[in-house]
């Protein structure tokens, strides 16, 4: 679970072109492009629940899930 702040661990130092976040029903709730995708991201404006994070990198797409509990 997360309180709304997440730390992006990128051991291969891939260029992250964008991050798209979807809620539990698949609705796009946030998109961060290029330089806005940093090591630490504040998702505090999102409500409690499960979210899917879709990272678009120079080598393809990576999907992760996160639960926000405040």
Summarize the helices and strands and which ones pair or pack.
Elements: E1 5-7, E2 16-22, E3 28-33, E4 40-42, E5 49-57, E6 60-68
Antiparallel strand pairs: 1-4, 2-3, 2-5, 5-6
Shape: globular
Low-confidence stretches: none
Enumerate the strands of the largest sheet in spatial order, edge to edge or round the barrel: 3-2-5-6
Order of helices and strands: EEEEEE
The average pLDDT is 88
Q: Name the helicity range.
A: under 10%
Describe this entry's structure for a reader:
The structure is a single chain. By secondary structure, this protein is mainly beta. It is built from no helices and six strands. The protein has strands spanning 5-7, 16-22, 28-33, 40-42, 49-57, 60-68. The strands form two sheets. It has a four-stranded antiparallel β-sheet, with no helix packed on it. The model has no long low-confidence stretch (mean pLDDT 88).
């Amino acid at each position: 679970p997360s309180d709304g702040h997440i730390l992006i661990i990128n051991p291969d130092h891939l260029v992250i072109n964008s991050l798209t976040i979807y809620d539990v029903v698949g609705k796009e709730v946030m998109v961060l492009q290029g330089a806005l995708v940093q090591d630490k991201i504040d998702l505090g404006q999102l409500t409690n629940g499960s979210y899917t994070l879709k990272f678009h990198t120079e080598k393809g797409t990576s999907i992760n899930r996160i639960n926000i509990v405040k």
